[in-house]
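Tokens for chain A. Residues wanted.
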């Protein structure tokens, strides 16, 4: 939790082990493929007992509210380290969240029926009745890169409900306590303009993203600012705002390396 930071906290470019496709061994370097993941963060409001899973039908009572969440990701560090044990330094350096929590009660008008899940989930995720597995949420996101909107994901395109995610997270007996935070995973829709990461939006660095000033990017340069905003349908035709989640990339103060002269889009 020490690296979960509030909106507008500067994001220091991380270092780690990187291995190019044509290299025999990794080297230590600042990431050249710094990315975002547009997510919804869920704030836990109820506790559970260690060793006792939370049933999917009871999960809603354990979720207090939501925040916008940006899971900053170093794709070149991640690509080397995640085989075979999964990401570590490529993810652990920073996670930004919006400055206030929107209660789930404020999102009643935004809840949606669950779309058909095939194959049918295992019983601990399926629940009972029409809403036994929880409900989706209609939350529209806007991802702006240096002031240019580059993507508009919507949480309604997510496959799993919040209740299913919490039930799965605790099925091994992991416990909850108030204030715990868990992320939805990258929110991406069916078309390129609704993807929630620049890895997807740039098609792995092969299709640069054009910003409002005419410059091109595939991954973040030092000095770049990302702002993610979101809102949901509310009562009487109004919108419920989730605020904004802002982060500006800065070079590591102890390093002479600055990723400012290229798009950082060379394929691994």
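Reply:
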């Amino acid at each position: 939790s020490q690296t979960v930071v509030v909106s507008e906290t500067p994001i220091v470019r991380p270092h780690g082990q990187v291995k190019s496709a044509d290299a025999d061994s990794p080297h230590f370097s600042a990431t050249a493929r710094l990315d975002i993941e547009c997510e919804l963060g869920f704030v836990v409001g109820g506790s559970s007992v260690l060793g006792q899973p939370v049933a999917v039908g009871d999960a809603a009572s354990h979720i207090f509210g939501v925040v916008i969440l940006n899971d900053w990701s170093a794709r070149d560090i991640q690509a080397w380290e995640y085989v075979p044990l999964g990401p570590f330094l490529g993810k652990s350096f920073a996670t930004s969240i919006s400055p206030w929590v929107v209660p789930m009660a404020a999102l009643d008008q935004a809840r949606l029926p669950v779309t058909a899940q095939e194959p049918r989930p295992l019983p601990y995720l399926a629940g009972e009745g029409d809403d036994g597995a929880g409900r989706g949420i209609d939350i529209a996101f806007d991802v702006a890169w240096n002031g240019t909107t580059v993507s508009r994901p919507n949480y309604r395109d997510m496959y799993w409900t919040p209740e299913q995610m919490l039930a799965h997270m605790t099925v091994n007996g992991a416990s909850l306590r108030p204030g715990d935070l868990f992320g939805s995973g990258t929110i991406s829709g069916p078309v390129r303009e609704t993807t929630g990461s620049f890895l997807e939006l740039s098609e792995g660095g092969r299709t640069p993203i054009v910003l409002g000033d005419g410059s091109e990017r595939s991954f973040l340069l030092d000095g770049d600012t990302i702002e993610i905003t979101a809102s949901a349908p509310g009562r009487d035709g109004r919108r419920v705002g989730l605020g904004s989640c802002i982060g500006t990339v800065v070079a590591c103060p102890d390093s002479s390396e600055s990723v400012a002269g290229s798009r950082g889009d060379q394929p691994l």
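The mean pLDDT is 94. The two ends are 30 Å apart (CA to CA).
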